């Protein structure tokens, strides 16, 4: 095992990730009030998502969507390989992880949007919009649980602490075997 490390996650990606975790915890804790805190946290989340989308277009290699967003075939192939115990190790997100990031970003954005819409004249007091907001908020928790499970599985399979890498920004480099 090498002790060499390579930079993978830049400071913005790491700050975004952990800030989003904390902010989502905050909106869940304030869902029943105080309403002003819940709404303001939601606005901060919406701003963070917008910044992450921009960073996904202009940021460094592993922050860019082009580095990890794949179609259904590569995602399903990765999941089949994982099930068979022969999945590749990636420096950035693997195809399934990339799909999870997109799902989480869209779900969090949708939750923020439906929360904001409830403050507009068109949807003030709309039980349908409130229901959609709550379903999306619950979906965030489901996806976050699957995300954590995926991180744990990949950490164990590849003998790499992925939580630590999201704190430090570094991972061990790809080996020749990883490149096959």
TrEMBL record:
Residues that span the membrane, as ranges: 12-29, 41-58, 96-116, 136-156
Keyword Transmembrane found: yes
Keyword tags: Cell membrane, Membrane, Transmembrane, Transmembrane helix
Localization per record: Cell membrane
Membrane topology category: Multi-pass membrane protein
Keyword Membrane listed: yes
Residues in Cytochrome b561 bacterial/Ni-hydrogenase domain copies: 8-169
Cross-referenced Pfam families: Ni_hydr_CYTB (PF01292)
InterPro entries recorded: Cyt_b561_bac/Ni-Hgenase (IPR011577), Di-haem_cyt_TM (IPR016174), Hydrogenase_cytochrome (IPR051542)
Domain of life the protein comes from: Bacteria
Protein name: Cytochrome b/b6 domain-containing protein
Source species of the chain: Paracoccus maritimus
Lineage, uppermost ranks: Bacteria, Pseudomonadati, Pseudomonadota, Alphaproteobacteria, Rhodobacterales
């Amino acid at each position: 095992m090498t002790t060499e490390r390579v930079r993978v996650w830049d400071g913005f990606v790491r700050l975004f990730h952990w800030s989003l975790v904390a902010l989502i915890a905050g909106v869940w804790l304030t869902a029943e009030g105080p309403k002003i805190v819940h709404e303001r946290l939601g606005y901060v989340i919406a701003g963070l998502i917008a910044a992450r989308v921009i960073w996904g277009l202009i940021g460094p290699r592993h922050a860019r969507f082009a580095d990890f967003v794949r179609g259904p075939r590569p995602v399903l192939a990765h999941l089949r390989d994982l099930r068979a115990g022969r999945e590749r190790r990636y420096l950035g997100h693997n195809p399934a992880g990339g799909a999870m990031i997109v799902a989480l970003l869209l779900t969090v954005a949708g939750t923020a949007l439906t929360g904001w819409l409830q403050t507009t004249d068109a949807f003030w007091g709309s039980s349908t919009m409130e229901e959609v907001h709550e379903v999306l908020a619950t979906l965030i928790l489901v996806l976050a649980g699957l995300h954590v499970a995926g991180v744990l599985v990949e950490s164990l399979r590849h003998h790499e602490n992925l939580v630590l890498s999201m704190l430090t920004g570094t991972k061990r480099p790809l080996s020749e075997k990883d490149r096959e």
